[in-house]
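Appendix B. Extra example for self-study. Work through it before the problem class; the solution is given directly after the inputs so you can check yourself.
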Amino acid sequence: EAGVAQSPRYKIIEKRQSVAFWCNPISGHATLYWYQQILGQGPKLLIQFQNNGVVDDSQLPKDRFSAERLKGVDSTLKIQPAKLEDSAVYLCASSLEPSSGELFFGEGSRLTVL
Amino acid sequence: AQSVTQPDIHITVSEGASLELRCNYSYGATPYLFWYVQSPGQGLQLLLKYFSGDTLVQGIKGFEAEFKRSQSSFNLRKPSVHWSDAAEYFCAARSSGGGADGLTFGKGTHLIIQP
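Solution. Structure tokens for the complete assembly:
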């Protein structure tokens, strides 16, 4: 079974530029999450999708971050404009049964903002 | 506010020795509790979880965890560590009261194994 795919693995941009990350979840997983993991901290939930609908985006900085999952499968997370403090690893996870608490994570996309 | 605390940033253990990683939570009601492991170059993987019932739960890779309501703790243990256990370990929780399922993670404990 293929795991959660993310790209790009690494991205370096300058502040005020934009960036987009892509995630393809495990086939059949209706729930998809984006987490932000800053160095030395645990992952922080940014947004949760159930199919193509948003379940929770309370911690998403909506003035600069956006995410979509148009067809209920893959998802894109965008940052525009980026700030220095956005430097982090962006993790995508999916789940077949969210109530189980078992999330399957991708390897992440590491963003460096200069 | 709901939170998960892992008091130890780094833990060093000799190979073959026992291990205990600490986790405390602060929630209005007992949450669902989890331990995840993040190995270099790999995504986070679920080790074990506690929802209710028996307070000692068994997980994969020989790990176990004990839930103690009186101490608001969910510590992870392993009787004998192997060099391959070197990784970052995260305790996580989510509300048991329904609603969104997103997990709240602690800051993690970096486990170093000495030969």
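Self-check: DSSP finds no helices and eleven strands in chain A. If your reasoning did not lead you there, revisit section 3.
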